[in-house]
Amino acid sequence: MMKKVVLTVSLLFILSSITSTLFAVPADKTITWAGGGKGQVTFEGDEHAEKGYTCDSCHPSLFQMQRGSVKITMTSHTNGQFCGACHNGKTAFGTNNTEECHECHKTDGQKYRKQHRHGHHD
Asked: Exposed, middle or buried: residue 74 (CB in 10 Å: 0-12, 13-18, 19+)?
């Protein structure tokens, strides 16, 4: 009986550690930064997780794990660093397209809307 309990607990621990690395940011988690001239920057975990990205897709190769460890600028994006490594107009919308600024620079608690990105309206 004790062996079954230990085995069950061990399996649960292993499964929880595996599933915790499956998503870039949990689907319900949003991270915000003060941003610069364009205002607050919002990273939505659900949008990136829906595309299949995991934490190790970007950490630590593009981003350190400690918030505030680097200063991210538009110049770094256009040079292919940080978000600009994927948001280059090929893998994902480019950071040089001013019509896409609202995708990251959100106001009033805006949330990413698939309908908007694909040209559909509510």
From this structure: middle
Model confidence pLDDT, tens digit, residues 2-51: 777 666 655 555 544 444 444 455 666 788 888 888 888 888 888 888 88
Residue 29's closest CA among 42, 38, 40, 18?
42
**Which option is the CATH number for 26-107: 3.30.70.20, 3.40.50.150, 3.90.10.10, 3.40.605.10?**
3.90.10.10
Higher pLDDT, 46 or 80: 80
Domain positions in the chain are: 26-107
